[in-house]
TrEMBL record:
The keyword Signal applies. Coiled coil: none annotated. Residues 130-228 form the Lipid-binding serum glycoprotein N-terminal domain. Keywords: Signal. Residues 1-19 form the signal peptide. It comes from Equus przewalskii (Przewalski's horse). InterPro entries: Bactericidal_perm-incr_a/b_dom, BPI_fold-BPI/LBP, Lipid-bd_serum_glycop_N. The keyword Cell membrane does not apply. This is BPI fold-containing family B member 1-like isoform X6.
Length: 492
């Protein structure tokens, strides 16, 4: 029943006129995958290494003197040796002298011993704006008096700007919001000293840490982020693929959705004689289904667009059937006109002068029956008489469950012989009453002889897939969904 209804859906999707094809596709990269890619890149480049082993006060004349950037600290408060007069700083911070704080800072200062992270989260703000948050955990020590950790966020705004058919990445301000310090004491020598020190340290870090992180982390982070996003929005053919002439992918528009970056992609191919022309502009695609759970990306083909692409890739080859095949012999006997039927004395001569060919000039077509993809191949079986003086033709349409593979950056369509059915078209009038036998013989011949040859031909005419940084279609699986075929890349 599935194949029967599938055949009714497929019969109307046969080729039309020729023309250059511009096919509309959709490429989606999930928000979770983008978060992972950013996090992996920042970890590989060790963007927090620049903040480790740096004093927050210039205890040894090295590192970044972030206290120098407090609004009430001026050059007059700094000693010529590049050290701060911490007694004056302490007076300004608290309104009175804090000899203990001065002593602790002069003894070595507050040091960032280590940094962990960043943990990356991505928040979609609109269809063209999102925010990347880098959560960092800093481990600090104040000599042997106090060790503690601080969690602080760095935020980078990203805007996608559309100019014509090009999308440009524009990074907004990279900054650390003030306040909201999350401090955890790890080690302490004296609770009284700790409490006094934390009062001043908290105030200092709350005012200076945003500037410090912006200065030490933001330049590298924004450079890496911009490069990564530019790579995501730039899709090309894989360098190992030698595709058809003028075979190109172009990202035309980009927008942000709740679950992914959605890119509208135009695929340009050159169609040969007799191949399908592009669909009229008024046939707009249906809304995309949701991104499959557990997928990092997908390439979505509107069904009509996929069939257009398939037709542009297709080149037919006639198959000459081996006349020694038992099914071929039975078909020749059934289809032969009286004058071609071998007599007792001329059997070998007559058999040698006829030919049986399978012709499939039109490309296969894929249709959807619910969530099952079906492949339809029209063709004809032609029996030619001696010296091509006469011929008998039987047209047919073969329907099969479609199988897809995406090895070596190419998408290949395959027919499954075991699920195949055939429907006969026009055939000789003299076969009235023998249609069932003819259909059975044609199906047997197509399954056993034609389909292995045809599947091999289709493997040679695969669809070259785009190359995108961080995403490989080699392990992708095809998931039919209503009006779309989704080539889905599962999470690793």
């Amino acid at each position: 029943m599935l194949l029967f209804w599938g055949s009714l859906l497929c019969w109307g999707l046969l080729p039309q006129a020729q023309g250059q094809a511009r096919h509309l596709l959709f490429l989606r990269v999930s928000k979770d995958q983008l978060e992972t890619d950013i996090s992996d890149l920042f970890s590989e480049q060790r963007i927090l290494d620049h903040v480790t082993r740096i004093p927050v006060t210039e205890a040894a004349g090295e590192g970044v003197p972030i206290l120098d950037h407090l609004p009430f600290v001026r050059e007059g408060l700094s000693r010529k040796s590049s050290r701060l007069d911490l007694s004056l700083v302490g007076d300004l911070l608290s309104g009175k002298s804090l000899p203990l704080l001065e002593e602790l800072f002069q003894a070595g200062g507050l040091i960032i011993e280590d940094a962990k992270g960043p943990e990356v989260t991505l928040q979609i703000l609109s269809d063209s704006l999102f925010q990347v948050t880098l959560q960092t955990k800093l481990y600090l020590s104040l000599q042997r008096i106090l060790r503690f950790s601080i969690i602080k966020n760095i935020r980078i705004g990203v805007r996608l700007e559309q100019t014509g058919n090009k999308t440009r990445v524009a990074l907004d301000d990279c900054h650390t919001p003030p306040g909201n310090l999350s401090i955890e004491v790890l080690e302490q020598m004296n609770p009284f000293l700790v409490n006094e020190a934390l009062k001043v340290i908290t105030g200092v870090l709350d005012k200076t840490l945003p500037f410090f992180l912006q200065k030490m982390v933001c330049p590298l982070a924004t450079t890496l982020l911009n490069s990564l996003l530019e790579d995501v929005l730039r899709i090309t053919l894989a360098p190992t693929i030698s595709g058809p002439e003028d075979f190109q992918y172009h990202v035309t528009t980009t927008e942000l959705t709740e679950e992914a970056i959605l890119m509208q992609v135009q695929l340009v191919t050159r169609c040969g004689p007799g191949q399908r022309a592009p669909r009229p502009d008024h046939l707009a695609p249906q809304p995309l289904p949701k991104l499959a759970q557990g997928s990092m990306a997908d390439l979505a083909f509107w069904l009509e667009a996929y069939n257009d692409i398939l037709s542009c890739l297709y080149t037919s080859k006639e198959l000459l059937v081996d006349l020694q095949d038992s099914t071929a012999a039975a078909l020749i006997q059934l289809l032969s006109p009286r004058e071609l039927e071998p007599g007792p004395e001329t059997s070998g001569q007559s058999r040698g002068s006829v030919g049986l060919t399978v012709s499939t000039p039109d490309p296969p077509t894929v249709c959807l029956d619910g969530h099952t993809a079906m492949a339809l191949q029209p063709g004809s079986l032609v029996l030619r008489g001696p010296s091509n003086t006469s011929s008998v033709s039987v047209s047919w349409k073969l329907l099969s469950k479609a199988m897809f593979s995406s090895k070596n950056q190419e998408l290949e369509l395959q027919f499954t012989p075991n699920s195949s059915t055939v429907a006969l078209g026009p055939h000789p009038a003299g076969l009235a009453g023998q249609e069932e036998r003819l259909e059975a013989l044609v199906l047997e011949l197509l399954k056993r002889t034609f389909l292995p040859h045809h599947n091999e031909l289709l493997r040679e005419q695969g669809l070259p897939l785009p190359s995108i940084k961080g995403i490989s279609f080699d392990q992708a699986r095809m998931e039919p969904s209503e009006d779309y075929m989704l080539l889905t890349v599962p999470e690793e």
